[in-house]
Amino acid sequence: MLAESLATTNAGWAREAVEICCLTPDAVSDMQAVFKLADRIGDAMDYDRLAKGLIEYRRGNLITAAKYLQDVHRGFDALASQATCFLAMIEYRQGNVTAAKANLEEASKSIAAYARSGELAWSGDWHEYGRAAITRAEAERLILGRQVTPFL
Question: Which ranges of the chain have pLDDT less than 50?
Answer without folding.
Answer: none
